[in-house]
# Entry
Amino acid sequence: MQTLIKIPENKNITLDTMINLYLDPLKIYIPIIKKEKFKLNTYIYKNTYFDSFIASVSGKITGSKKVIVGKKTLPALEITNDFKENNNYKISKKKIKNKEELFNLLNVYHLTNILNKIKGKELINFVVSAIDIDTYAYNELMLLTNYAKKICDTINELNRILNINEATIVIQNTAFNAIKNLTSIIGTYSNINIKLLADYYLMGYDSFICKELNFNDNNTLILSINDIYNLYNILFKGNIINEVFITINGNAIEKAMVIKTRLGTSIEEIINKLINIIDKDYEIFINDPIKGVKVKDINNYIITNDIKCIVINKKVSLEIYDCINCGMCYKVCPFNIKVIDNYNKKKFNKKCNGCGLCNYICPSNIDLKSRVYGGKNEEENN
Ligand code: SF4
Ligand code: SF4
# Structure
């Protein structure tokens, strides 16, 4: 039986209760997948799609640079914001009647992650998760706390469109503000329930949520609060999704915050404008220090949909010792991988999802994940 772990919060960190806005970046970067050529000074309208990436502001192409997206390094166009919000993408807003119309709309809005979760499933259960997968992120909770009514209205609408009787919102039982806010309005939504789950690392993964609720993964739709907020924007407002929420956290900054910003914005620009770093000797992680990557140069990173959190921590150098055979890496692994055996045999394991718990728990500070996951904890040299 796997041992579940609670990651202690850093008590020195205070989190802003409001969502901070950074919606007028000086520049944005658009990664280019196909080998197309673009001329300098070409005008780019806001909300133009380039494969799955979007121009979140309007302006001219003023240069290019390489950016890291997931595990890939891609060339990216640099667009200098003219702050005119010139937009050539119009979508008419109409009431969605059924699943098929919703699928079309999700296609048009490039929300393929949500589309893939709904399409082809015979849905019985509908769950909305307010649990941030990254321990140091507070995006889902902050969205629920700030927009509880919009979230519940959208869940109601989805229940109608998808023909589902009721939905369950899952929240960690330690999220007192979000729970208080939600319980004050939930009485008016007869088809939405709340379920509190224990505050363990990995509890936000779909498989853990289904296990806790005794639901079958195959007929359960799990969307995040952020997905619902995006659906609110397309169903009720007809807005293109070019904004995202990220948390900047860590013990080397003055104040942690959740920020609403534009896709493609340079992370370095956001840090320079909004964050007060109080320790000179710091290190930066993309998507938390446990399962994320330690970056060598933050200048290579832009805001993309898969970045939920940036952690700026005081630098620590860990002494590495020999394995003491305590077995903890095996006990915490959600996939029961014989972690130390894989590590010793220098074998990566396909089941490993890179959650980083083995590294976190190891008293000898051995970097097990880098070998078992087949990746590196530090950004790879490209
Ligand atoms: S990183 Fe991989 S091996 Fe380590 S605990 Fe997570 S799933 Fe298991
Ligand atoms: S947790 Fe570390 S010390 Fe313990 S068995 Fe695993 S590798 Fe060895």
User: Anything to note?
Assistant: The chain has a mean pLDDT of 90. The pocket of iron/sulfur cluster (ligand 2) is lined by residues 323-329, 340, 361-364, 366, 368 (CB under 6 Å). The longest strand covers residues 59-69.
